[in-house]
Fold each of these.
Amino acid sequence: MDPVVRIRGLRFARAGKPILTDLDLTVARGSVTAILGPSGSGKTTLLHLISGLLRPQAGQVELMGHPFPRGRRALYQLRTRMGMLFQNSALLTDLSVFENVAYPLRAHTDLSESMIRKLVLLKLQSVGLRGARDLMPNQLSGGMARRVALARAMALDPSLLLYDEPFTGQDPISLGILVRLIRQLNDASRLTSILVSHDVRETLRIADYVYLLDQGKIVAQGTPAQLAAENKPWVQQFLQGLPDGPVHFHYPAPDLLTDLLEI
Amino acid sequence: MRRFLAQLGRRGIAFFARLGRRFLLLLHILAGSGELFRHFDQLIRQLHGIGVRSVAIVSLSGFFVGMVLSLQGYQVLTQFSAEESLGLLVAASLVRELGPVVTALLVAGRAGSALTAEIGLMKTTEQLAALEMMAVDPIRRVLVPRFFGGLLAMPLLAGLFSAFGLLGGYLVGVDLLGVDAGAFWGQMQQRIDCYADLCSGIFKSLIFGLVVIWIALFEGYDSRPTSEGVGRATTRTVVQSALAVLCLDFVLTALLLGV
Ligand SMILES: Nc1ncnc2c1ncn2[C@@H]1O[C@H](COP(=O)(O)OP(=O)(O)O)[C@@H](O)[C@H]1O
Ligand SMILES: [Mg+2]
């Protein structure tokens, strides 16, 4: 089957500083593909390049078999088929939970008010927040806000969902809910999901295929089982969260004793 | 020396790039003005947010400025035994100059800074990117109603400022200093010209409104998406608006008077 996303030789720099270099990546239809990497490795940037919020300086991004559209209209057309869960939920703060989820429906369909109501309630039901429909975003906990954002991203029944760090700042219970929800939504709605995260354990539980990203480069890839068997030291250090290895806990500094004795 | 020149060049390029983005944003906003008719409620909401909430500060300031004008004007006019012209002096100063200018400064401080902070925060919390991802143009949906709301509010607020200024001037001039009420209003009626005074005042405040709201929206939209970046952008809005308004006032006055 043709991949949903295919990236070849992608390069992106900011103010001369390379952020992503020569990146190749393929996302199979129907899969949950994870991109794991430490903070600052360029994960958010990569998601923004996939969604067209940023444009690459070199290389190709193909979405659903077509090169990335140039014009605004074609881009918007494409975006009605993809949803994105932002790092900090990004709910519109002046609208209620209900109106936030209804927003994409109102913007892109001519559905009647009763139809919109039904759809919104169904989406909210699927994230377990039908009862919270009248709350405002500032009345929600972080976990609830993220689930509302998920319902909103699902509103137009996209075929591709992008998640930016969905697990950060979640308490253990909402974390568990979210992990299961992502997998369930993916399988029930025949979605393709791309999940960006630095939470290794949760991600490996639900990912079909994983890319490890470090300083803008793919350093390893494979199914979770293949990665566990990988014996590059960096990979093992990152996956197991060890304090020392190729990446050091200490920022380079002279010997502590010399430093302390110096006047 | 080479380093200095390179630095100068970089600054220059950054400045012009910013200027370019400024004009592109304005074009984008104007091109999206059709959105107003589809979402009329948004315009009303912004008119309320920018206009109605500035009413108190604008009318109070107008009142005090009118009183001061009357006091100062009276001091000068009595020297020529021309106190009957006090009404004319107060009205002309308010309608032509102080109404549009001070209102623009007040709106920049009260509503402009708030707009910059609001847009900047929407950017920081990725709300603008979220709209973009929902295939909704954030400029059309968020900036356009704010722009036209501000543009409409400005002349109305300037009118309010002048009206309260006249009231203040009247109270001080007639009730306190004893200028004849008939003369106060009469000279004003005879000498204030619809075109030369009223229209030029309205024209000025429309231009000021455009500039102030444009600066506020651009600074918010172009701000760095961090709390520090939004803070800086807010300060820049107030400083730049004040400078732009005072500078433009001179240019517009010179043009309108045909000097
Ligand atoms: N708007 C920006 N301007 C300049 N540099 C940025 C910007 N956004 C991100 N970066 C830099 O790009 C790198 C990758 O950032 P990001 O993609 O956000 O990483 P991640 O999401 O993996 O934590 C970081 O070094 C960061 O400092
Ligand atoms: Mg990130």
Amino acid sequence: MNKLIQNEMMKLIAKKRLVVIAIIIGILVALFTYAQFKENERQREKLGTDDWRTIIQQTIIDQQNRISSPRISDEWKQQLQIALQQNQYYLDHDINPSEPGAPTFMRIFLENSIELFIPLMVMVIASDIVSSEHSQGSIKLLLTRPVKRWKVLLSKYITLILAISLIVAIAGLLSYSISGLVFGYKGWGAPVLTGFSVTDAGLNTASVKLIDQWQFLLMDFGLVWLVAIVVGTLSFMLSVLIRSTAAGMGVMLAALIAGAILSNMVSSWESAKYFFMVNLKLTNYMNGNPPPIEGMTLSFSMMVLLIWWAAGLFVSFYVFTKKDVY
Amino acid sequence: MENITLSVHNLKKVIGKKEIIKGISFELREGEVFGFLGPNGAGKTTTIRMLVGLIKPTSGSIHIGGYNIVDHFEEAMKHLGCIVENPELYPYLSGYDNLLHFARMLDGIGEQRISEVTELVGLRDRIHDKVKTYSLGMRQRLGIAQALLGRPKVLILDEPTNGLDPAGIREMREFIRFLAEEEGLSVLVSSHLLSEIQLLCDRVAIISRGTVITTDTVDNLLSNRERVVWRFHPLEKGKEVLGSLTAIEEREDGTITTEYDEIKTAEWNKKLVEAEVSVTEMYRKMPVLEDLFLELTGGDSIE
Ligand SMILES: Nc1ncnc2c1ncn2[C@@H]1O[C@H](COP(=O)(O)OP(=O)(O)OP(=O)(O)O)[C@@H](O)[C@H]1O
Ligand SMILES: [Mg+2]
């Protein structure tokens, strides 16, 4: 099995797709960094250079006063407490909350690329990994060697998972190192709000708490990786089913874009929530953004994705081991 | 007794509702080159795809080196090397990496064997170049090197001379003969070029519309069908005389062809001379497979 994976890696590297993907991510990150930099500059001009400290100090004092006021409800008090903690951290660590460091940039970058950008990059590799053997005709040699078909496919799938992990890691690394050049590398410990849950009554903030940014990032990475694996597995399935790489990519692209559009329309079409593509924005649940369709929760979305993943994997292996190769 | 390396029994394949292979049986022996001859669309490639495990037979069985390829796929494939249609290797890898790739799929085949087969097919100078820079002939050789990596007992080549120039065809032919005679491989070669099979093979199966019409040694097939070609003067008179004695066939070049039989042929000649027809030319002719093929298939289209 190791040797088979070595083979797949050799082909993947020779095709130079990973390099292209790394370059695309690099360019995109540089662009976003520049945009953010411009935005910061504008803000600074508006406020004056060091004014943000005074403003935060002012806000903190204001918040402290309100907390100590007896007329305020417990729930409200709790929320103020959280906001106050956040502001205190920024002040103590000399971080301008509207001018984030590299970790914050990385977090925002991940949250915005989970739905479309990372899946697209993953798709570039996954949709080609089986179908290219068909279009080149090399499948005829690959499948007439004394290795069972499921082993051949498994080696490809494992390679895909390794490649996906690499892509997610590259995305993290590049967004951190490039944006850090401009914004500095501080901010791993910055407090981030999490723990929202959405119920019928609206946003439930009862269990909201502050966690360190690095912890939050770790969860973000986990979710991005999960989404990437699911999208990768489905593209992999298409790659098995459809002989043409371009057609496979087209189908997946259509699905992903449809997902992005569907989740932006406030959908009254409730059963759309069972589509994998409207469940991709997992990081939204952590930020407390309302889900695209009522009743969707983090565990619901993960469940839906898991089912699609399992089905995709099953279909891939079933078809690949059974089908006639012409 | 010669060993059977590949045996095919009553093989059938239905695609959709169409029966494409309608019960094919044959055997390959050690050290022989076996020809698979048929016109376009006869089912040669389809049969070969079943032999190498790319498509599943609808019914019938295939044994390679004694192993059924459905039940013991891995063991059976260890004894097999093949090129189906064109040798399609990875163009973006070097020849060496391609060989390495397929060596990794075999047990106990390492660098030494890779350089052995490279040497054998004469690709040593270019083996580290990318395959996309190879000529068709070089790709063909690399394909064969790949097929020979695992020291197979059976080599299956689908139209191996497709696209090669005359020198390349000749070289390929000699190489295939070498593999069979010196290395003891069984080689199955498919072709729609009759002359090629005639020169290359020991035995041949003639296949048309998914059935084997006949299987025999090339020598037998040819010697049973020796012909005599006549030329005489005057033509009309001669035709009349000869036609009353046996079935005749007139050619456009003014020659007449009849069957050959040692005693009868001399008799007919005598009758012609007695009828004052002067025989200007008379010779024995081995049929080419073209004629044979037309005869057997009743004129099914060939290229
Ligand atoms: N995937 C398929 N679906 C339907 N029919 C097929 C398929 N593959 C082959 N056939 C049919 O099977 C028949 C045999 O095809 P095959 O490719 O085996 O011929 P061949 O003997 O190799 O011919 P050639 O000399 O042209 O290579 C043809 O009539 C072809 O149309
Ligand atoms: Mg063919």
Amino acid sequence: MVGNDAFQEADTTGITRPVTKASYFASDPDTVGDTVGEAFELARKGRQGPTLVDLPKDVSNAEDVARPGPAAGPETQVVPDEADPEAVTRAATALANAERPVILAGGGVIKGNASEELRQFAIDHGVPVVTTMPGVGAFDETHELAMEMAGMHGTGYANMAVTHCDVMLAVGTRFDDRLTGGVDTFAPEAEIAHVDIDASEISKNVHADYPLVGDASTVLRQLDEALARSPDTDAWRDQCTHWETEYPMDYDAPEDEPLKPQFVVEAFDEATDADTIVTTGVGQHQMWAVQYWTFTEPRTWISSHGLGTMGYGLPAAIGAKVAAPEKEVVCFDGDGSFLMTSQGLSVAVREDLDITVCILNNEAVGMVRQWQDAFFEGRRMASEYPWGPDFATLADAFGAKGFTLDAYDDVADTIAAARDYDGPSVIDCHIDPREDVYPMVASGGANGLFALQEEHL
Amino acid sequence: MTGELPGPAPEERPHPSGRRNEQGIRIDPEAEAEPEVRREVLSALVDHEPGVLAEVSGLFARRQFNIESLTVGPTMTGGLARMTIVVEETDPGVEQAKRQLRKLVPVHAVRELEAATERELALIKVGDDDPAGVAAVAEMYGGEAVEAGPEVVTVELTGTEAEIDAAVEAFERFGVREVARTGTAALAGGTEFTAHETHNNE
Ligand SMILES: Cc1ncc(C[n+]2csc(CCOP(=O)(O)OP(=O)(O)O)c2C)c(N)n1
Ligand SMILES: [Mg+2]
């Protein structure tokens, strides 16, 4: 039947090929088990990522099929055990001689379970650490070496450190444009040592002076052994601390104005344990969540990052709770994002998942509104959305528990009540619709020119 | 709108004078040159099965690599085919193309061929008004007439891409009706292996 446009036929492997590591069509009942085994192995091997097996109906219905052998990844995919020792030596020399070194920790540090090694390396050698958005949690944001997230909505101090460093040790990052801004001005004076398990990331967007292909923990250990001495970073660290005081993330929260989202995020953070898992949708709320929650542990920050898929927050919270039932899970969502997958509440109720959704409701697709204001002279088009449902009622209708939050005085109590509720709860938190996200690096702009207000853009 | 943060404005901050080019390579801003595009022959050893060609060509289209030709055919090893891909890219572009190819599951080995032997086959159909002239040009380019019918002669010839370009041009004066070209096939020069299982995506 395949290829004849039969009922519900779609070229599933063809459609998914560009977005998977591999997409298999299992046409033979006797080898389908091996194919599934290979797909799982490949998903885990090297740089992790999704694989797909398309199972035609006659294959899934087949009986008396051969048993699969032990699962094995495809022979053609080789993952190097360790980085080229010669490149390691050269990178270590550059690092030892650096005056203004920075570690850039990406999501690969977390996926590769290398947070511990990275922390040890940074602390042992006194190197300040900035992270990408997927790298949030790789380093403890309360540590004195933490400069937090860099890039479009990164902290001012992280972007200053990235702009002025002379050697950058980048681990498990693909140098996404939301991190780099324009590559012409990205770390323009830095030699870059790039550690990645995926060789195709080396020099893809930003040239790597020291390409180090391998597993993050292994390569960090190699570098540590090759490092004859730690760089002398006292002056540079003073400079970084100075930037931290010069560009604080201090926001105004006047009592007589609508709730500020930053305040709500901080209040949630204070109320919960350090290992609480945070998930988000896409937009301003996502940026406030990453900026104002203090992350200390890997795998506590779950977001769609470079893909920017609104609607990710609730399904991700459900997945996180199923995977880590012992941990508290909080989803910060936007009113727009939540509407895209809110039917997931039904799953959360069915599975009796104790998760808390906090909708930072600005009655707008706020991030779009912010760009229209900043880059299109305030000509707002389809970005304000005062027609959203009453989210508390919606939650109740699903059999979850709804709350509404409007006033500073109620923040602590409402958060406590929603967390106490045994099952999925949703707080419809009405925030100041005028609030914008800063700092901001304009698309393609220089990180060092981050704006602190609209006039700077 | 609200949400502003404290701190010196962008123009009040120090800014480094360094620059990178489009490829993310640090450069002297005074002496910036356009990165050079080069023609490179890549050879890939791939599984000889349906879908592989689509996978490879999809990759090149998706990533906007400039490709001049792509040919594929079986090898002496059952189940494996050789693909010859001619790309026109900057240095980092050629590297990227190789690395992205290696990530495809059906791709066993990829190499960039230096001093390769390159050949392309062409069939050129011309008018038969001047059979002696056609034969003379065909001979000059090492080709031969493989079909001589009423009104037309079809000439087969092999050569490098440039030689075939030149031959087609030379045949123009007899009136070229149609041309079919295979694209470049290539093997590494000398005793070097082209792309071989021993190179398993190193
Ligand atoms: C599925 C999808 N559609 C559109 C966009 C473009 N987009 C990015 S942010 C944003 C606004 C999101 O609104 P909301 O969830 O309310 O978040 P807010 O910015 O208001 O906090 C939009 C439309 C996207 N990223 N994903
Ligand atoms: Mg919104």
